[in-house]
Amino acid sequence: MQAIQYFGNKDLRYTTTKPIPQIVHPHDVKIRVTNCGICGSDLHEYLDGPIFFEGETNPITHKKKAGQCLGHELCGIIEEVGCDVEHTLKIGQHVVIEANGTCLERKFLQQLKDEQEDICGACAIGKYNCCKRINFYGLGFSDGGMAEYLVVTSSRVIPYDPKVIPDEIAALVEPLAVAWHGVRQSRVSEEPNPQALILGGGPIGLCTIFALKGHKVHDIVLSEPAAARRELAQSFGVRTFNPLDYNDEDEIGELLKMTKGGAGFTHVYDCCGNKATFNSMVKSLCAGGVGTNIAIWPHVPVDLYPMDLTLNELVITASMCYTKVDFELVIKAFEDGLIDPKEVGKLVSKRVQLKDGIEQGIMDLIHNKERYVKIFIHP
């Protein structure tokens, strides 16, 4: 079959000869891929990796990492199911994939006599998205969606109605689930009159707009230097702010002017992930506000003064990936009309065939990042 394989730093290869994956375990589901998004994590693996691909084999799947197919933002159609797959999953269903690969997968891969054998502490208490051995389908765990087919464990498969979520945008359920998990972590639904600030208008920042709408939050400001992304956010009905219009000293003051009584935002989401945005998150919160780090950083320190938190009783939290529940809630938000698929469709900047996915997809996104929000690859 066609596939884009990862072999190491700056070493991606398109092939037409990768074997079509087959059902091996009773909980396996074989999926024909219809669309796969290119994520920033894919670009980091190419430019700076191996990161998730570090090591020769995955300790849970025992699969070689070199030569795995990239791609964890995907949708497709079920082609075949194993003998123990849940009756709710049927051939012909349109599905998305929760791409986490964790200790809990050992159970489905029939590698455990005792379900608690060799399970990390996070997985043991149900926080499997914080698994100490976490990799992802398409990022070191097993083959991903930049291929014609993939096989995944049934617990990671979530059906959707293509009449509600068109196949052309369904792969965006994955980044929407990242944003949804971050918004859930912030407990924004407990605030009677939330005012939200999103720092960074990349794909996750823009998806956070929809996650907030799904939580019935509509007073939203997006801070983003790129004019095209601010214009896109404005088309979603949010106010925007250009941090480059102000020096560091004036930026926070101008942001506060956009809040009720200048008191600050009840919730701030850092979707950029650097020292400057972390500082802006802390400084722009109102008393009792909640700041949530959704961006995944390398080991970069920030300046944090505990009295900034104490004086205003601030809460600083963080969000790691997602769980299956987040996918289900995103799909329900579409079904309930809280997320508009036509608006979400504006996030897809370009579609390319799998055979052109490296040059016209991954490389184009690396060299012309400002032109695009999301590029889809399809077989």
UniProtKB/TrEMBL annotation:
It holds the Pfam family ADH_zinc_N. Its cofactor is Zn(2+). PROSITE patterns: ADH_ZINC (PS00059). Residues 26-160 form the Alcohol dehydrogenase-like N-terminal domain. One of its GO terms (molecular function) is zinc ion binding. Residues 203-334 form the Alcohol dehydrogenase-like C-terminal domain. The keyword Zinc applies. Keywords: Metal-binding, Oxidoreductase, Zinc. GO terms for biological process: butanediol biosynthetic process. InterPro entries: ADH-like_C, ADH-like_N, ADH_Zn_CS, GroES-like_sf, NAD(P)-bd_dom_sf. Belongs to the zinc-containing alcohol dehydrogenase family. This is Putative diacetyl reductase [(R)-acetoin forming] 2. It comes from Candida viswanathii.
